């Protein structure tokens, strides 16, 4: 677990690694914005130390350490607590989903992440670079920026899903095999997992956009409305992709059924052609003592020619009927 403390305003910026979380103290004047970044939430002692130092309710501390809960928003007397799911690409495994907990208080922000990742790197670069709106406004704007970064992380994952779906669609229309079916089900499972993160995120941002928390200025509601629009877009795209994958699965199953029908048709035609040939062969295979054809010098060629003629006639008939 690492704890980083950032303190800034329009004129100055400081950043340091905190080795004793229980000694965290906010500036008494509260004229600067303090951002406490906690990477790792599986050490109860550290979470409790930070919580006690900042006056965080024990129930909130439990929520921070419970990384399997549904995204939610809770308003306390001195702070606002939000738990959401941040996602980012994870190579061949698709994407990785992790809980991010944000606390907005008077003059400070605390962010808890399960593990260090790149979700907030862009915001850190903006703060370190100086200038811009982020350095000159209060913690509620930083709170908005962090949520916006979480939502933006979904777009990269969605774009990757779009490319994977296009590839699968091309395979289904070309020569689908068992691996194609496995890829379809893998994407469908991943989309279900992504939906579990995206839809509650939309509800959380909607509550912030419509809320009246004294910790969020009225001027920021329009910014949260923009984040809400992005969250709606993410949720709608996930639903669209789920419908597309269901359609692709139907196409795959139809193609496999059509292929099986083609195979059965060929086998049926072959079996049908051999029915009269078997009949002719059966006649000449009967064990009668007197069969004139057996002693005729052209009996065998006549039988072969008859079988060939019957087979050719049936093939011509099937071709005219467009069965083959």
Word description of this protein:
It is a single chain. The chain has 324 residues and is α+β, with helices and mostly antiparallel strands. The protein folds into two domains: 2-255, Beta Polymerase, domain 2 (2-Layer Sandwich), CATH 3.30.460; 267-320, Magnesium transport protein CorA, transmembrane region (Methane Monooxygenase Hydroxylase, Chain G, domain 1), CATH 1.20.58.340. 57% of the residues lie in helices and 16% in strands. It has helices at 44-54, 58-65, 121-129, 139-173, 178-210, 221-284, 292-295, 299-320, and strands at 2-8, 13-18, 33-39, 72-75, 79-89, 95-105, 108-113. The chain is rod-shaped, with a radius of gyration of 35 Å.
